[in-house]
């Protein structure tokens, strides 16, 4: 597997994928001035195992929540991450359960929406919801645990060396790294299998560290919550946020992946509606309207769209 990653052909493919939508960025333009030599240099660095992750720069984002985003140079790091994923993505996807939706081709927000919507057709089986997420998930990922989990699937020591080098380049998993989103899903994947195969949970949905479980029984969800807390603490050294909830679906709705789910209908999350309204108030930007329409068309939004777009 490692030889596939550092092959010239794979590095060129990684370069093409990494630059999509970024062709005018400084790092891409600088790389293109010496592209062939850079690819050859990266090939040698990986082959001889002299590659070392560059220094990160960081910046703060405030939407949808405040967090630090990490950024690496285009060459050699972002090309390297894409080269790794060209080879490892099929392995990652194969081990993921069908119940995880973030950062996976063919999945995503609207696939999660369709799955929850379908589950809610079983009204008796989805009376109650357990909703939880993880306290500071990305910064809390334990490197040694992640490495041991990877060694359950990967036996190529050279590849493990490269993954260790990338993992140890920052605390936790740095938000912004292309590899981080897959490693985050992988960190959870044996928990996913435990939920489905040992706890036999029928209705389970995970988007990154945001978890929803549906059940006909409130006491069963409280008991499961206790077991989940123990599993996450003992096996992954993760802590559940204090804002977890066990509640009747019809009384409150399920706030998940940007939507509010009821048994009878689906609405947009309040914060998304507010952002939509603010954007319309500032200026009716066609691209932004199309983006929000993409959200709205999957839920009961005719009245909202009429109010915002035709006032």
Characteristic key phrases:
311 residues; alpha+beta; three-stranded antiparallel sheet
What does this structure look like?
By secondary structure, this protein is α+β, with helices and mostly antiparallel strands. Helices cover 54% and strands 13% of the residues. It contains 15 helices and nine strands. The chain has helices at residues 2-6, 8-18, 26-32, 35-47, 74-95, 109-119, 137-140, 143-151, 157-167, 178-198, 218-236, 249-252, 270-282, 286-296, 302-309, and strands at 57-61, 67-71, 128-133, 203-207, 210-215, 245-248, 254-256, 259-261, 266-268. The strands form three sheets. Strands 4-5-3-6 form a four-stranded antiparallel sheet, sandwiched between helices. It has a three-stranded antiparallel sheet with strand order 7-8-9. Strand 4 (203-207) and strand 5 form a beta hairpin. The longest helix has 22 residues, at 74-95. The mean pLDDT is 91.
Offer a quick outline of the entry.
This protein is of the alpha+beta class and about 300 residues long. It has 15 helices and nine strands. The strands form three sheets. The protein has a four-stranded antiparallel beta sheet with strand order 4-5-3-6, sandwiched between helices.
Bin the strand percentage: 5-15%
The arrangement of helices and strands along the chain is HHHHEEHHEHHHHEEHEHEEEHHH
Rounded to an integer, what's the Rg over CA atoms? 22 Å
DSSP summary, beta strand count: 9
Q: How are the strands ordered across the major sheet?
A: 4-5-3-6
Broad structural category: alpha+beta
Low-pLDDT windows of residues: none
Largest sheet, described in full?
Answer: 4 strands, antiparallel
What's the end-to-end separation, in Å? 58 Å
Average pLDDT over all residues? 91
Indicate the overall shape.
globular
The DSSP helix count reads: 15
State the share of residues found in helices, binned by percent: 40-55%
């Amino acid at each position: 597997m490692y030889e596939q990653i550092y092959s010239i052909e794979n590095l060129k493919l990684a370069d093409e994928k990494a630059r999509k939508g970024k062709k005018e960025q400084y790092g891409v333009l600088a790389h293109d001035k010496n592209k062939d030599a850079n690819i050859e240099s990266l090939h040698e660095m990986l082959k001889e195992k002299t590659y070392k992750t560059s220094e990160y720069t960081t910046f703060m984002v405030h939407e949808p929540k405040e967090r630090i985003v990490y950024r690496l140079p285009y060459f050699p790091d972002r090309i390297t991450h894409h080269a790794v994923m060209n080879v490892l993505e099929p392995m990652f996807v194969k081990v993921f359960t069908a119940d995880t939706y973030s950062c996976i081709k063919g999945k995503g927000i609207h696939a999660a929406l369709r799955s929850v919507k379908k589950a809610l057709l079983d009204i008796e089986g989805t009376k109650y919801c357990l909703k939880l997420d993880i306290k500071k998930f990305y910064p809390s990922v334990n490197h040694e645990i992640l490495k041991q989990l990877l060694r359950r699937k990967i036996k190529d020591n050279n590849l493990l060396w490269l993954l260790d080098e990338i993992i140890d380049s920052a605390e936790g998993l740095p938000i912004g790294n292309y590899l981080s989103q897959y490693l985050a899903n992988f960190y959870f994947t044996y928990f996913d299998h435990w939920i489905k195969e040992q706890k036999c949970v029928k209705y389970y949905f995970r988007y990154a560290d945001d978890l929803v479980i549906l059940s006909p029984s409130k006491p069963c969800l409280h008991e499961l919550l206790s077991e989940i807390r123990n599993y996450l603490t003992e096996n992954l050294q993760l802590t559940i946020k204090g804002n977890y909830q066990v509640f009747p679906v019809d009384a409150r709705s399920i706030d998940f992946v940007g939507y509010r789910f009821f048994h009878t209908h689906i609405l947009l999350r309040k914060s998304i509606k507010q952002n939509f309204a603010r954007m319309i108030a500032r200026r009716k930007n066609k691209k932004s309207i199309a983006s929000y329409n993409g959200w709205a068309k999957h839920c009961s939004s005719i009245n909202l769209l009429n109010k915002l777009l035709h006032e």
